[in-house]
Each structure stands twice: as structure tokens, then as C-alpha cells.
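From the pipeline queue, job 12 of 40. The input is one protein chain; the requested action is below.

Action: predict structure.
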Amino acid sequence: MITNSALLAAMVLLVFVMTLLGELEFLAPYKRTILSEHLWTIAGSLVLLFLNLFGWCYLAGRRLFLKETGQKLAHVERLLHTPDTVVRDLSARLAREE
């Protein structure tokens, strides 16, 4: 989930930066001056934007994909106590590992 969130945040940031560079094309002659004076500010802002995007993507992923996880685990726990053949084998294996 962390990898997916980081990938999505990086893609959104890349699209944002490419769009912004396309819109600010008229500043191309001044790029040396801008980068020499404001490189750390720009880099810090991009890192901060990436971290915010990552946090929002991670939060959205947890809300959307991990709904009712406790109920699902309780259902699996109840299945482990039934006399079903496949579940019995799994229960025996878990008992041996404990």
C-alpha cells in the first residue's frame, strides 16, 4: 500500500511539474538566475508537496481498500474453528507453529 501511494503521488507530482513547466515557458531565458537563487526553495516545496500527496493517497487507500478488515478477520477466525477439511489442515498447521 505504501508503494502504491508513493507511485501515485510521484505520478501526480510529475504531471503537475510538467504542466507548470509548460505554462512557465516564457521564463526559460532566466532559468540560470532563477535556479541559482531559488533552487532550495523550489526543491523544498516539491518535497513538501510530494509528502502531502503521499499522505492523502495513503489515507484514501486505507479508507477505500481496508474497510471492515476486523470483520473479515473475525470471519476467518470462525472458519478456523469449523470441522471443514481444508480449514482443519490450516488449523493443525497453525497449532503446530504456536
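Job complete. Residues 81 and 91 are 8 Å apart (CA to CA).
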